[in-house]
Design a protein that fits this description.
The chain is an alpha+beta fold. Helices cover about 50% and strands about 20% of the residues. It has 20 helices and 22 strands. Helix 1 packs parallel to helix 9. It is elongated and about 170 Å long.
Amino acid sequence: MAWGRSGLRLRLQILVLLAVLPAVGLTLYTASDQRRVASREVQQNALRLAKVAAADHELLVDGARHLLTALAQLPSIRGRDDRACTELLATLLKQYPRYANLGVIAPDGTTVCSGLPLSGPLNLADRRYFRLAVQRREFALGEYQIGRITGRASINFGYPVLENGQVRAVVFAALDLAWVNQLAMALPLPPGSAVTVVDRNGTILARHPDSERWVGKPAPETAIVQTMLSQREGTAESTGLDGITQLYGFTPLRSGPDAGGAYLSVGIPRRAAFSEANRILRRNLLGLGVVLVFVLGATWLFANTAVLRPMQALVKATGRLATGDLGARAGPTYGSGEVGQLARAFDEMAGALEVRHAELQRTQRELQRVNRALRVLSASNHALIRATGETELFDTVCRTAVHAGGYRMAWIGFAEEDEAKRVRPVAWTGHEDGYLGAISVTWADEAQGQGPVGTAIRLATPRVVQHIATDPSFAPWRVEAARRGYGSIIALPLIAKEGPFGVLVIYASEPDAFDSEEVTLLTELAHDLAYGIAALRTQEAKLRAETEVERQREVLFRSEKLAALGRLAAGVGHELKNPLAVIGGRVKLLQMDIGHAQPLAPDQVARHVKSLEEAAERMRRIMEGLSTYSKPRKPEATLLRMGDLIEATRELVSYQARKSEVAIGLDATPDLPQIRGDRSQLMQVLLNLATNAIEAMADKGGQLTLRASVREARGGTGSGSPVPDRFVVVEVADTGPGIPADTLGKIWDAFYTTKSEGTGLGLSIVRGLVEEQPGASIEVQSRPGEGTTFILALPVVNAASVE
């Protein structure tokens, strides 16, 4: 019995020892796992704290933007009252201790006033924020730097003071990076932790603690600095500036694309990160060694309830936060120990992140609205440039608003001037579904005209209904709008010089969809659309006028040509009588000879045939010339020989010349080279010139000479373009009374004439026809009492061109 009791105790002791061994191993394993979890968690917490600091930095940048925008509007700054400006900025520096300095820079870079006293003239023209503000005329960020006035690490911002579009000055603010020290003291960081800001070159801009020791010193070779510059954002276990290994979280300070690069890191000592895990390990091992089996159970229960569960809750909350669940919390109950404090700090940090995330989402929604308005404005402006008609422009703008802007429906309407003053839709796109046909819209000053569309046209100002479901002004159309999912509406008047003439209406699915910036951009879109409509209408009116002018010109051209044909008809008829008489006589002779029994001799037949051929050839030339002249006016440049055209001209005007006792002389160089031109047009030119010459000599008779020769070019034009080497020159010369010098320059003008009859279009048409011939020109020489010569020059076509 005693042995059994002793053996049981021994067994119990052995059992306790066996129970202790796994517990010891489990305790050691748990301690190791806790160290890994603590290391990972501390690094993630350090990264989150770094991001919180970066977010605070963004808020400070935004605050600087608003402050500089307000300063740029103050009279003491716009009026260049340096004394008042200095006093004002000094006062503001006391109110805003986050800023190292505030000041104003002249356009040449000279500092004209500063919140801090200046030791002498200071030029800041080389600063990046100043150059960007002057170039872009908007808010600009500079590099992270050590200020020349303050001597402290800061980031500077500039904002232009504009007057009539010109930069009068640049207001600047230097944000003191000492805010890093304030933030570090406010963050729940363990002792020995450090918050550091370095620029892209590895120079330390801010440091907590020991800022005086480190700020301004380069440290590009430090392990953590190299890690930050290469990875930009993340976590690391690395050696810090003081040579101590710490757990780091780091992220870039993002302040827009123009900001100078800088990085912020939060470092937590390893001993602080592992202090809780080490303490638990020591406590558990001590308990196991002192109380054995009884204490083992109590220690196990204590570890399970006081350590593992809170840590598991914290790890679980951390995992949820890492996946984007910003509502994850380790609470609501917290222990009194370090784990409870860590859980409470984690929940506070998660709450702050949730608030900032909500603010960021709100800002993103506003930016999305502005961006969609910008997309619509940009695409519509491209449509304005390419549009060739109103219908195309209307459809494109409506389609752009729906597809590029994401709006539910858009339509364009014109304000009718009828008795009911209806608004007539002319284009629409989107979820319309019969809406425009189901509603009645007017811009009259009555009940149906008090909605956003009628009011926008009547008052020539944009009208917005943010809540269609509740706004009383939209009551007449609310039911139809609700059926189609419209939540809000904006009506934008289309305004011309005479006043509003239409409206652009855009519907959004969600209520409260149009903020002030979006309204401004959409108003600009409506103004551009109205301008585009006016431009298209002006262009269409101009095109109609040009078409009518061309039509009238064609009518005058045809009438002038018909008149010339009428004048030629009698002469052509007379010229045809002679060859017809020859043909008739020869035919009778042949009939008489055939009637005799004696057959005709070959020479007799040959004489008859030759006479018939000559008569037929003369008739052919006359008819060919007349046919060439009377062809429809469809210009077509072909290869021609001017000798043929001159011969045809002589045949056509010969009868008119004989009636007027005018002799026609032909002086053409044999085998004239080919030229390129329209046969009908050139025939009209020659006939017009020859007819005018004959009419000028009708009273007393005279000599008409048609000359054609080849001349060499007299030199280049100096423009670098190729010049023909040779020209075929045709001269139409008469011995008439000539043209007085004071009227010689007017003969080419349309409707100018010295005759009692005629339109005065002949020579004007001649010059127009000559200008249509490739490389052709015409000039006139005249001496009163001696005669007039018109000289037509046409470039010779070289052999290579002909081939």
